[in-house]
Amino acid sequence: MTAAAPPPPPTPPSPSSDPVSAASPPSAKAPPSRPRRNPRSASRRPVRAAAAALAVLGLAVLLVPPLAQLDQQLVELRSAGLPPSLEHPLGTDQVGRDVLLRSVYGLRVSFLVGLVAALASMVIGGLVGLVAGSLGGTPDRLLMRLVDGFTSVPHLLLGIFIVALFSPSPAAVVVSVGVTHWTTAARIVRSEVLSLRARPFVEAAISGGAGRGRVVRRHLLPHLAPHLLLATVLMVPHAVWHETALSFLGLGLPPHLASLGNMINDGQRSLLAGDWWSSLVPGLFILVPTLALGVLAQHWRDRLTPRLRSELFQ
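User: That's the sequence. What structure does it adopt?
Assistant: Structure tokens below.
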């Protein structure tokens, strides 16, 4: 009796027998994928635009006055009210002064006054907030009631009252802005000091016998410095707008000094005659740098806050 032969091994299926491979030709390729957009690059576009705008305006402030070799107070009645041209790129005002040259000078004056005023307000508010947060108790309540009292009065109204006590001058504008805008810095510093006092490293320093002055110098001020610097940068646009408003009302800088507020005040008289550039150009010189500075400060705050939080909570 002979044994049955084993069945033959199954043959592998040919490529043509696969319905999927048969349906699609071998030369077909997948459609190219679209490039993905980087959300970081899209979010940085406003920051880059703001930095470019500030760089262009900074170069204009540095280069236009020496290259022009003209007196920004030079009066030429024969060239009064000229529209933008090659000789005067942004036209002339009602007494023949070059609008571009005066706008550059006005930008420099307005931002210099605004920077000094912002520093003055930060110093006043920082001291008040530091004292209130460090001492606590009755001094804290009294100082915060003082802050509430200043906050309840409109800044522009209080600024007009302060400037009216002096003759128009940069010092009067600095005093006005410093007295009316210090409350924001005081609240920021006080809240940060109260938060820092509850941190373990501050409690350990106090338990170890460190005096109040040493705690302020070694532990509070290093953590408050970035917040104060950022608040100062954010305060500069407010100070510039405050100075512009006072100068527009005739209460800020002297009329002969080229400031953006004075230029807008002078240009409004020639709007009915069609000289739109006398007011539009100074307005743009105020709007563009203040918005650009605000965008950069906002970006700086977004990058700075997580790092500060990680340092405080470690």
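The mean pLDDT is 78.
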